[in-house]
Design a protein that fits this description.
Blueprint: H1 23-57, H2 62-75, H3 79-102, H4 110-127, H5 132-161, H6 165-183, E1 216-219, E2 222-225, H7 227-244, H8 246-256, H9 258-263, H10 268-293, H11 309-319, H12 324-340, H13 353-387
Antiparallel strand pairs: 1-2
Helix pairs in contact: 1-13, 2-3, 2-12, 3-7, 3-10, 3-11, 3-12, 4-5, 4-6, 4-10, 4-11, 5-6, 5-10, 7-8, 7-12, 11-12, 12-13
Amino acid sequence: MSGETPTTVDDVDIGSPPAVSDPEPMHSRRREFLVVVSLYVASIVFALVISAVLVAATGGSWRAVFSAMLDGSLRAPGRWGTTIGVAIPLLVVALGTTISGRAGLVNIGQEGQVLIGAAFAAYIGVRVGGPGPIVLLCLLVGGAIGGAIWSGIAGALRYWRGVPEVLTTLLLVTVAFQATGYGLKNEDLLLAPFRGDRSVRNPVSEQLSETERIPRINIFGNEFPISAFAAVLMAFALVFLFRRTLWGFRLRMFGQNARTARRAGVSNVKYGMGAMLLSGGCAGLAGGMMLSGGDFGDYKFTPGLSNGIGWDGLLVALVARERPVLIIPMAFGFAGLRTGSGFLAATGVERQISSVVQALLVLALLIPPAILFIRSRRRALAATRART
């Protein structure tokens, strides 16, 4: 009818009970919900049990290990503030990954994009004059531009030369490390000037001044940069854009079927390149936040500043199934594994065991969606056979 507005898929709340008072659909939904929860709980418990067995096999106590990781990430004084600081770039990288994922693109070069973004931010922070807050804003924007340029190279090769972005984004990670390494050998680029106070020059940039750093707040003895609030707002803003805007609808259409989207008037190059630029821009912004936030590199650019944040941010988006709100707790959880591993030395267990635990938890969180997909696929095939 002319007076009605069309209802999109996102306008339907799939978690609410049906409008009709039919007890059978409600019972079916409750049962389905319990099945999903049970799968996730069983998978996580199984992963933790395997982790405990591995810890015991290496001669450690699983109770001591898990207690140390809880102390390092949450319970010790000031630790949950540190965990929030580490979670910020993970969250921002994962949000960018979600954008490219919604467009059906596979960007796996976030590590290089984070590094290039941080390098752009370091260059701008040292060389741009003016009031500190203005310089801070410029270096964050510069970091986003750097990451966008780096992912844009892969996007251009994808849409003008047909080179798969999954290949180019990965290869560009190596190029990013080589390029920033070269920059740290030249004073005209990133290397801090030699002042004669040391005989060996370290490949490091100048330190950002205090006015060019992201302000930090202290809550109950836990200190973290205020960019944490901006990152959370980004997540909710992305939810709104995905669900309530024409851009989000067209991006989802493009990601699900590019040919159909093109027939509907959606430009593949425009939306595909836009998604790649935004994805890399978020990774570059995360690099700028890492440089100016205070939890990485002491406000200096170093060769290993990215420290695997790009890879972990990709995993966060994957485990959260590219849902912006779910990415928030997932980023905090992954950050907790990072910060908690620093307390493992006292237990006599290698801190690399935290990487094993992280990998097992990632697998545990990916198994339920795979099982549910296979089950729904079988049901659909059975229904098709029954109709024929």
